């Protein structure tokens, strides 16, 4: 798969990143380089290799799933630039 400047512009728009037209060829080339690395990773044989969370085998720390500091909705929403009906309000981004 190859990314052209038109696709790079569309990705930048979807990511809400302003990219000048003169920088689009370089961005497309960066995307192509990343996709090349991904293709290389897809060629690696990982049959029989167990997934790991660290380079050293260790069990992750666990804690009880209990509410420790609940009922702070008003305090948390006080930091929000826009809150409505007890929730964070964000601008619509889906086209």
UniProtKB/TrEMBL annotation:
Keywords: ATP-binding, Ligase, Nucleotide-binding, Protein biosynthesis, Transferase
Entry's EC annotation: 6.3.5.-
Gene Ontology MF, one: transferase activity
SUPFAM superfamilies per record: Glu-tRNAGln amidotransferase C subunit
Gene Ontology biological-process annotations: glutaminyl-tRNAGln biosynthesis via transamidation; regulation of translational fidelity; translation
Catalytic reaction equation(s): L-aspartyl-tRNA(Asn) + L-glutamine + ATP + H2O = L-asparaginyl-tRNA(Asn) + L-glutamate + ADP + phosphate + 2 H(+); L-glutamyl-tRNA(Gln) + L-glutamine + ATP + H2O = L-glutaminyl-tRNA(Gln) + L-glutamate + ADP + phosphate + H(+)
Domain of life: Bacteria
Entry-linked Pfam families: GatC
InterPro entries: Asp/Glu-ADT_sf_sub_c, GatC
Function (record text): Allows the formation of correctly charged Asn-tRNA(Asn) or Gln-tRNA(Gln) through the transamidation of misacylated Asp-tRNA(Asn) or Glu-tRNA(Gln) in organisms which lack either or both of asparaginyl-tRNA or glutaminyl-tRNA synthetases. The reaction takes place in the presence of glutamine and ATP through an activated phospho-Asp-tRNA(Asn) or phospho-Glu-tRNA(Gln).
HAMAP family: GatC
Subunit-level organization: Heterotrimer of A, B and C subunits.
Entry similarity comment: Belongs to the GatC family.
The protein's name: Aspartyl/glutamyl-tRNA(Asn/Gln) amidotransferase subunit C
